């Protein structure tokens, strides 16, 4: 949606919140003027992060983007809780009208109106702390049928949806890199949505990713946000700092040990596809899980796919992969958006089974938009392949 109508819509929603809560807050004078002021600030600053994003207008400074994104997170909770309050008042009215339930309306309206901004502010503060901390390590064992002995215990450190941009900078990335390097993984896999901005803007901030260390290296696939930010330039930059970008292609990884080499049956095929929607931006980047296996050794039956969106899973299962690693959903990031993810994606977070293939969906290592995570903590995932019993 263009910025102007979106700004008008959010302004009207702020007005709705004010009109619904201010009468109840009148009992706590002078609380309601404070709410009106906060809503006015929120309505004015929310559009700031998007000014100049896809237009000729000059982007605003990161400080103002910070304020706008904080307002966005707070407003989101305010709106949801205001709607929930109205629904609760409607149920109370029905109970009063139909069942004779005695309701002290002035008291109920006053305290429920006060509860909305208090709860929205509390969840925003908790969500801010959760979002800004370094993601914790989540360890997941993935049982693979017929896993070769040479690949027993093979580890993949997955990062996803970091979204380097206005509020996620070099220091945040440096902390992630330090945490990953301590894991000593066989492979580091980055499943898309690394950036929210151009290469000149963010080159220095993403540079620490070049310091990721793993036995077989670091592999990246594109997410939808790379295409918003200029995928070709970012692919070149990621390759420049030493990361391997897989564009509908694969690599063959062998766990050779001194004095013993492994054959194709002991190798792991690690494939990566472009984002599920990449073809809309560049026809040459149409996502192709089956094509990513072209030329792969037929003797290798352990095949892992990196695909940004879980929606790639049906095609991946058809192509014969044993495991798909995805992100994109953020696990919903904060309530109530986790309830809407299943409308677009087959899986929201965690390990799932699709026919003969496992799908693991990361909740993301960073966050998008508001620096807020509530009920969906960020993660650095360490997946370990084990033989299915």
Give me the secondary-structure topology.
Blueprint: H1 3-25, H2 31-45, H3 62-99, H4 105-132, E1 136-144, E2 155-159, H5 170-181, E3 187-191, H6 199-206, E4 218-221, H7 224-229, H8 231-240, E5 244-245, E6 249-253, E7 268-272, E8 302-306, H9 313-319, E9 323-326, E10 350-354, E11 357-361, E12 379-387
Parallel strand pairs: 1-12, 2-3, 3-4, 4-5, 7-8, 8-9, 9-11
Antiparallel strand pairs: 2-12, 6-7, 10-11
Helix content: 25-40%
General form: elongated
Task: Please give the domain count.
Answer: 2
CATH class placement of the largest domain: Alpha Beta
Task: Label the structural class.
Answer: alpha/beta
Q: How far apart, in Å, are the first and last alpha carbons?
A: 50 Å
Strand content: 15-25%
Count of helical regions: 9
* Contiguous runs where pLDDT drops below 50 for at least 5 residues: none
* CATH architecture level-2 label of the largest domain: 4-Layer Sandwich
Number of strands: 12
Radius of gyration: 24 Å
Oligomer: single chain
CATH-assigned fold name of the largest domain: Purple Acid Phosphatase, chain A, domain 2
Instruction: Name the CATH superfamily classification of the largest domain.
Output: Metallo-dependent phosphatases
């Amino acid at each position: 949606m263009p910025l102007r109508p979106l700004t008008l819509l959010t302004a009207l929603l702020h007005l709705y919140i004010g009109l619904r809560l201010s009468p109840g807050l009148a009992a706590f004078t002078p609380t309601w003027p404070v709410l009106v002021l906060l809503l006015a600030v929120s309505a004015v600053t929310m559009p700031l992060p998007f000014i100049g994003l896809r237009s000729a207008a000059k982007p605003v400074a990161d400080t103002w983007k910070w304020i706008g994104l904080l307002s966005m997170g707070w407003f989101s909770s305010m709106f949801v809780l205001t709607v929930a309050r109205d629904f609760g008042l409607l149920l109370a009215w029905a109970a009063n009208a139909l069942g004779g339930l005695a309701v002290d309306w002035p008291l109920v309206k006053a305290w429920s109106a006060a509860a909305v901004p208090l709860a929205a502010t509390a969840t925003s503060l908790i969500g801010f702390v959760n979002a800004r901390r370094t993601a914790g390590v989540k360890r997941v064992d993935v049982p693979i049928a017929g896993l070769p002995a040479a690949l027993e215990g093979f580890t993949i450190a997955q990062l996803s949806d970091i979204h380097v941009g206005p509020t996620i900078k070099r220091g945040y990335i440096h902390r992630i890199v330090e945490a990953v390097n301590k894991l000593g993984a066989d492979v580091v896999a980055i499943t898309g949505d690394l950036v929210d901005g151009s290469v000149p803007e963010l080159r220095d901030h993403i540079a620490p990713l070049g310091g990721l260390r793993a036995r077989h290296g670091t592999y990246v696939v594109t997410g939808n946000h790379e295409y918003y930010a200029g995928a070709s330039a970012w692919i070149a930059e990621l390759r420049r700092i030493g990361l391997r970008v897989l564009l509908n292609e694969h690599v063959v990884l062998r766990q050779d040990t001194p004095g013993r080499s492994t054959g194709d049956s002991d190798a792991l095929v690690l494939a990566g596809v472009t984002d599920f929607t990449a073809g809309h931006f560049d026809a040459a980047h149409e996502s192709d899980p089956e094509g990513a296996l072209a030329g792969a050794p037929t003797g290798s039956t352990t095949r892992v796919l990196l695909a940004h969106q879980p929606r790639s899973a049906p095609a991946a299962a058809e192509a014969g992969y044993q495991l798909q690693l995805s992100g994109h959903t953020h696990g919903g990031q904060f309530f109530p958006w986790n309830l809407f993810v299943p409308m677009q994606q087959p899986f929201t977070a965690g390990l799932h089974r699709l026919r003969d293939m496992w799908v693991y969906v990361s909740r993301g290592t960073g966050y998008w938009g508001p620096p807020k995570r509530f009920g969906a903590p960020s993660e650095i995932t360490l997946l370990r392949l084990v033989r299915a019993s």
